[in-house]
Amino acid sequence: MLFGPESSKEFNLSPQSYWKQVTLPQFSPVRESIKVDILIVGGGNTGIVTAYLLKQAGHRVALIERGRCAHGSTGNTTAHLTSVTDLGLTKLVRSHGLAGARAVWDAGVAAIDKIQEIITTEKIECEFERIPGYIHTSIRGEHDETFQLQREAELAQELGVSAKFVNRVPIFGREGIRVPDQAKFHPLKYLAALVACIPGDGSHVFEQSEARVFDGANRDFVRVQVNGHMITCQQVVIATDVPLSGINNLASATLLQTKFAPYTSYVIGAKLPPNTAPAALFWDTSRPYYYLRVDHHLHEDYVVFGGNDHKTGQAERTNDNFVDLETTLHRFLPTACVDRRWSGQVLESHDGLPLIGQVVQRQFVATGFSGNGLTLGTLAGMMIRDSLMGRKNQWHDLFDPHRLQLRGGIWNYLSENLDYPYYLLKDRLMPSENRGLESVNPGQGAVLKLNGQRVAVYRNEDGHATKLSAVCTHMGCIVHWNEAESSWDCPCHGARFDVTGKVIAGPAETPLKPVEQIQGQNLDAQSSDR
Ligand code: FES
User: Fold this and answer.
1) What are the CA-CA distances from residue 425 to residues 161, 246, 394, 422, 430 (Å)?
2) Disulfide-capable partner of 230 in 33, 259, 477, 497 (CB 3.0 to 4.6 Å)?
């Protein structure tokens, strides 16, 4: 086996995440109307764990997923299990006091403990291991936060959190904080075993099953139309990354949406000679920050390195982010041999804390995990199970989706929500390039103005062009081409569509319209094939 930057070039890089090499069990679509106690919409980590815990608590559940389970954001995770939050303890203490900060820390601890307990109970072989985490000064060297990290370590001691300042963090050789007892596992090995525990005794898992119409008009139950059939239930849990509106009214659903924003994060995977680096998790203080996970296997180590986050749909030349990651990784691990790269979406909330709880009678939501979805998605399952069993827990008010605190958070609430009017006007008023269909090369996409309309044109490798309305079906902004993922991404609220127009990520709930359905168009008169 060759290692190092040169050997990376030998590889045809896989566009799939490291975890997706594992096959999950397959489930059939909804083919008849059924009744259950609780319907969980979204078959990622949050949905699967919630369904599992609710079934364990004696409920009949149905878990529905519009594609394949664990193949959306969950499959693109970097699989850090951690109680460290993006906010840091100093900011947490400032906004929520010592008790609040400690409660947020304990949430992560409780979730990791629950994951370990499930793995032990169900005897799941998924490479779970307790490893340390390191937060260290910026590897871009853009600012020196040594003093702030020292202060964080002191605050951790004050809170009774086991973390200490170190002068040299492994691999990066920088000052930082060592946090023991974090963890890592193989998320899809874990979820493959967990999802298999759900069906039976009146509970179900369905794939290729999209929730289309929610009816909560009758106060005694909720009816959801899926694949033309009805699922009738007492409660609905929306566990899609970006929450569907469900039975929530439009004003309330829109208000919820202003409390989080989707960001795209880039990741590369690389092989290393055995024992090159200690098994651990790392985060630096760059903005946006880089993150690294090192795994030890029998014949080689494997690293997952990510960063370069930006708001979804708001970056050009997205492939450059992968180039930067590879160059940066080789500065610190020159023998790394990169064999795959992928990107994922993370939802940042307005104050850095997740939004978990009831949004309206009979409907729960769990979102805004800020890149810590495996840990906080597990916590969401625990909290929703507690609520449905009438138990209160210490995080109920802290993570309540209706909480009002809008200041002192991780981003500025008002400026963050200016994206919608800004991009709506900018993209519509911007003069379009004078380009015809023939200017779009195979494997590429572009938004063109054809017959006075913005059209999202994608040409496949065989030369066939697919033409879709470039108007986002959420609230009418113009989608942008994402070259790294070959998708159409909306800069306003982060909806994503594949090259056929199908929704990959909300808040849009309906596909981009084929151009033939745009009123008054005759674009077929223009050549679509080469
Ligand atoms: Fe909201 Fe596109 S207009 S996601």
Assistant:
1) 48, 29, 44, 6, 8
2) 33
The residue whose C-alpha atom lies closest to atom 1 belonging to ligand 1 is 493
Query: Helix, strand, coil: what percent of the chain each, to 5?
Result: 25, 30, 45
Instruction: State in Å, rounded, how far the first CA of the chain is from the last one.
Output: 42
- Whether residue 61 contacts residue 39, with contact meaning beta carbons closer than 8 Å, is answered with yes
Helix (H, G, I), strand (E, B) or coil at 369: coil
Q: Which of 240, 260, 288 is nearest to 351 (CA)?
A: 260
- Rounded to the nearest angstrom, the distance between the alpha carbon of 492 and the centre of ligand 1 is 5
Task: Name the region of 70 (left: φ>0; alpha: ψ -120 to 50; beta: rest).
Answer: left
Q: What is the pLDDT of residues 19-69, one digit of tens each?
A: 999 999 999 999 999 999 999 999 999 999 999 999 999 999 999 999 999
Q: pTM higher than 0.90, yes or no?
A: no
Candidates 311, 426, 475, 488: which one to mutate for ligand 1, based on the most atoms within 8 Å of Cβ?
475
Report yes or no: 478 and 486 within 8 Å, Cβ to Cβ. Answer: no
- CA-wise closest residue to 364 among 41, 108, 73: 41
26, β-bridge pairs: none
Q: Report DSSP letters for 187-216, one per residue.
A: HHHHHHHHHTTSSBTTBEEESS--EEEEE-
Instruction: Return the closest-CA partner of residue 361 out of 380, 382, 388.
Output: 388
Q: What is the pLDDT of residues 419-475, one digit of tens each?
A: 666 666 666 666 656 678 888 999 999 999 888 888 999 999 999 999 999 999 998
Ligand 1 centroid, distance to 472 Cα (angstroms): 6
Distance, CA 249 to ligand 1 centroid (Å)? 18
The rounded Å distance from CA 328 to ligand 1 centre is: 33
